[in-house]
Amino acid sequence: MTDDVYTYSDGSTYKGERKDGKRHGKGTWVRQDGMRYEGEWLNNKPHGQGTLTNPDGKRRSGLWENGKFIAAKQEVVESQKLQSSEPVREEETQASKPIQQTVKSKKPIWKRWWAWAVVIIIFIAIVVAGSGNNEEPAAEPEAVTESPEEVAAEAPEEAPKTTETTPEVTESATLGEKNALSSALNYLNFTAFSYSGLVEQLKFEGFSHEEAVFGVDNCGADWNEQALKSAINYLDFTAFSYSGLVKQLEFEGFTNEQAVYGVDNCGADWNEQAALKAQDYLDYSSFSRSGLIDQLKFEGFTSEQAEYGVKAVGY
């Protein structure tokens, strides 16, 4: 095992134990945006006791298994934002006082001489108009110039109300739904999930079924791409046949179509996978040539792939 600092192509770094070029043992991985995992690793995945700290300050500390968080409750740390908001509110309150005082210092309009002059002039004009001939009432029809049809014609002005029925997700969501969405995004930034797998993970975190479904429905994940990432992760962990990897992804909750997409695009050399699997079996137990071929075929490798694998390990 090695214990040094390694920088990946995406800018993230890892300092700790490695085995065969993979994170293995104890170490700390840090991404450029501040996401950090410190703890135990197995074949490039968090496995054992560890703590994941998200860029927003939330932590998950406890037991991990094959990259999935399986024990302990979510911890929320660093309430600095909440604390810093109190002085802001105080400043805003203090800043509002001078404004209120300025408004109060203005002289009421009814105390100004010119306002009374205007009122008197208007009153005189009304009296004079009232003392004229009786032809003025002809203006009364103006009060009914808008027919019901014309009023109805103005109805389209109410159209903007339709926009009020389609608020943005963040505006209509409950606090629990917003937090479920945030947690879903954090998980997807760390490892791959199927739709149902992510729902179950959020429910394990304590979110209700409705909150978990909301978070997963709105996280924007491409489940085909998630299946592809999961397939690559599995191949980093151990060897699989084509059909074996499809079944594994389906077990994780991916649909058959998603699983097939992931396996079709993972770039695996199935002959090499057969060779790796053959070596794994020999590291575990003794096999005859025919017995090893049968075992590989049982794992889902074709006869040609099994023959290649057996030959590659020396049979």
Describe the structure.
Among the domains are: 2-76, no CATH class; 172-221, Arc Repressor Mutant, subunit A. Strands 1, 2, 3, 4, 5, 6, 7 and 8 form an 8-stranded antiparallel sheet that branches. It starts with a strand and ends with a helix. It has 14 helices and 8 strands. A hairpin with a 2-residue loop joins strand 6 and strand 7 (68-69). Helix 12 (270-284) packs across helix 14 (303-312). Helices cover 51% and strands 16% of the residues. Mean pLDDT is 76; it is low at 73-111 and 133-167.
Low-confidence stretches at least 5 residues in length (pLDDT < 50)? 73-111, 133-167
Proportion of helical residues = 40-55%
The number of strands is: 8
| Proportion of beta-strand residues | 15-25%
Mean pLDDT: 76
Shape: elongated
Task: Summarize this structure briefly.
The chain is an alpha+beta fold.
Question: How would you describe this structure in keywords?
Answer:
alpha+beta; Arc Repressor Mutant, subunit A; 315 residues; 8-stranded antiparallel sheet; 16% strand; 8 strands
